[in-house]
Amino acid sequence: MVTDMTHTGPDTSLPRSACRPINRCNVPPVILGSLTFQRHPEPVHIDGVATFHADLFVLLDKLTDATARAEQFQDYMAVQFRLKNPEDAGGQKGHGRAKADYLRTLRGWFFDSDGREGAVLKSWAESRFGLLPRHHNGVLGTSEDAGFLLDRAAGLHNTNALEAQLDLVFAYCQYELARRFVRETHITLYRGVNRLNHFDIIEDRGPHDQALLFNNVNSFTTNRDMAGAFGDHILTVRVPRSKVVFFSGLLPGRMQGEDEYIVLGGVYDVTSTTY
Which of 19, 76, 233, 256 would you call most buried, defined as having the most Cβ atoms within 10 angstroms of its Cβ? Predict the structure, then answer.
């Protein structure tokens, strides 16, 4: 199913220039990226994923231990996408990008969100959620676009359904968050920045209270002190649980550092303080 949005309505705060008119999930892009959604979130599902991978979630429902569920998820990914035998899916074992998978993509994001893997994640978020990337080694919509397109092409070349792998990562993340935070719709997260003018300010309500337009994919942390290591200004944001793509504790033993969360963008109410 493709969602089409032709009318924004009076409560919508996401500029049309920041989103596509259609996406591949159950919430229109212009709503998903709005302040209205931040304040009143709903579950987000990528079209067809839960149905196509129903067997995985039946297996997960039977497990009470989060570590066991993570192991089941990784085993399922390895089998479903032939990650240990890329030649079964048409790749060349040991050559080129055949070994690129969701784990390498996530690690690449944590290492450099403006690198090749970062471009893949931003492109995936645009395709699935209709939120346009705004930054990649510079402001997009300028001469930097060519670099983004090259990184995206290089990141997706000779991979086995990498974007479909990311679809399932998001679905599993949402499943786990729903089990771990049954009554909580939001998670308070922090981000350190050096300059607030790096963002588009949608509404400035005072020196510490703004509505900011973020990139379509972003890194946050649950550790305020850690956020302070990345900039003089600490942004505090109540992020809807349904906009979290991945968090560092989702897969025990992998990417544990910095209590990092990967979050979909759009407009957010932000409290900013000097660290």
Answer: 19
